[in-house]
Design brief:
The protein has helices spanning 4-9, 11-18, 20-33, 40-53, 64-74, 91-99, 118-126, 148-158, 210-219, 241-251, 254-271, 300-309, 340-348, 360-372; strands spanning 57-61, 82-86, 103-107, 109-110, 115-116, 135-139, 161-165, 173-174, 177-178, 185-189, 203-207, 224-226, 229-230, 286-287, 293-296, 333-334, 349-352. It is α/β, with parallel strands linked by helices and 375 residues long. The protein folds into 2 domains: 4-251, Aspartate Aminotransferase, domain 2 (3-Layer(aba) Sandwich), CATH 3.40.640.10; 254-372, Aspartate Aminotransferase, domain 1. The strands form 5 sheets. It has an 8-stranded mixed β-sheet, with helices on both faces. Strands 9-8-14 form a 3-stranded antiparallel β-sheet, with no helix packed on it. Strands 4-5 form a two-stranded antiparallel ribbon. The longest helix has 18 residues, at 254-271. The protein is globular and about 65 Å long. The structure holds pyridoxal-5'-phosphate.
Length: 375
């Protein structure tokens, strides 16, 4: 049994302890084989992960940011192109756009799902000053799928590529169809706290387009078509054998872990009924994988301090939307209608402890403290 202090404070450690025997064995086997970069573990993981997502191709890369960069570059996006995404996301989404030399345009979210608003996307495209954007990156924030039917219809109508940022949503689906299969290409991160986490950095690009996949494979290794001959200028972003061996073990339990997250999230939501706290919504048709369990409160900071005084750690995802962070303030393009919902979210959101190794009694403990709280 994993001790309660570890369960509440360190998901990566709890994750490792839950599969320790298998992970240790996988690492020993990998070490003894003597292949440490792009070997049989990566090859096997790529097949297994593609099968999990439901694409024909998955390509292991160095991290989730690089997965986005490689997806954009494989689509031919680069200097002075324009790419639409949200401000209410991990900064990596926007950083990846700029790393290709492209410009980001940030569009507001729908406050129910915390994902890219199709209406605002449409309005931004209609208001079109400047060249037409080449791609839209939809972020499935907190494990809730973005409105994929609406977003893919808009992208198709305008002839714009849809990219899915799946870093927080491994295994989520919309209307029964897995995220990562709706757009031209999808990017995943295996940062240790994600629903599928490595013990270090890792990422993957997933797609059904064999040509696009082949280009990502070249670009992740210097643009080599054959060894030592660069066909185009690429980068070095390879998934290593150690992380692939660990990810193969964890991928086998990912569906069950996601189901466990949903069960625990259901306990939170039932327990919050009648309290002055807004639980996360699940849009009809959405299969939410609860990367985070994010509540809203107009008194968020007081609530957070109260929980901390009771020994309950919480987190804020994210304290500032990207467009007001110092590196971006005043120089990033903002879509039609502004970013009021993104700014409101950053003031109200609070992530309660949630991962598959928590026990029912951990959720009950957090709920007990929440019931004691008075705004
Ligand atoms: C974690 C994350 C990334 C970046 O992943 P890294 O592996 O940390 O580079 C990108 N987008 C979102 C939404 C994320 O949560």
């Amino acid at each position: 049994m994993i001790p309660q202090n570890i369960r509440l404070t360190s998901q990566p450690l709890a994750d490792y302890l839950a599969s320790k025997t298998e992970i240790d064995e996988a690492i020993q086997n990998m070490l003894a084989r003597g292949r440490y970069i792009l070997g049989p573990e990566v090859e096997a993981f790529e097949k297994e992960f593609a099968a999990f997502v439901g694409t024909t191709q998955a390509i292991g890369v160095g991290n989730g940011t690089d997965a986005l960069v490689l997806a954009l570059r494989a689509l031919g996006i680069g200097r002075d192109d324009r790419v639409i995404t949200v401000s209410q996301t991990a900064v990596a989404t926007v950083a990846a756009i700029e790393l290709t030399g492209a410009q980001a345009i940030l569009v507001d979210i729908d406050p129910v799902s915390n994902t890219l608003s199709p209406e605002r996307l449409e309005a931004t495209l209609a208001s079109g000053t400047g060249p037409k954007p080449k791609a839209v990156i939809a972020v499935h924030l907190y494990g809730h799928p973005a409105d994929l039917p609406a977003l893919s219809a808009i992208c198709q109508r305008h002839g714009i590529a849809l990219i899915e940022d799946c870093a927080q949503a491994h295994g989520a689906a919309f209307e029964g169809r897995s995220i990562g299969t709706w757009g031209a290409v999808a990017a995943f991160s295996f940062y240790p706290t994600k629903n599928l986490g490595a013990i270090g950095d890792g990422g993957a690009v997933a797609t059904n387009d064999a040509e696009l996949a082949a280009r990502v494979r070249r670009l992740r290794e210097y643009g080599w078509k054959e060894r030592y001959i660069s066909d185009e200028a690429g980068l070095n972003s390879r998934l290593d054998e150690l992380q692939a061996a660990i990810l193969r073990v964890k991928c086998r339990r990912l569906a069950a872990d996601n189901a466990r997250r949903r069960t625990l999230a259901g306990l939170y939501t039932a327990g919050l009924a009648g309290l002055p706290i807004t639980p996360p919504a699940i849009r009809p048709g959405a299969t939410h994988v609860f990367h985070q369990y994010v509540i809203r409160s107009a008194h968020r900071d007081a609530l957070r301090a109260f929980l901390l005084s009771r020994g309950i750690p919480t987190a804020i995802h994210y304290p500032q939307p990207v467009h007001v962070q110092p590196a971006y303030l005043g120089r990033i393009a903002i879509g039609a209608g502004g970013l009021a919902e993104s700014e409101r979210a950053s003031r109200e959101v609070l992530s309660l402890p949630l991962h598959p190794h928590l026990l029912e009694e951990d959720i009950a403990l957090v709920l007990q403290h929440l019931k004691d709280w008075r705004p």
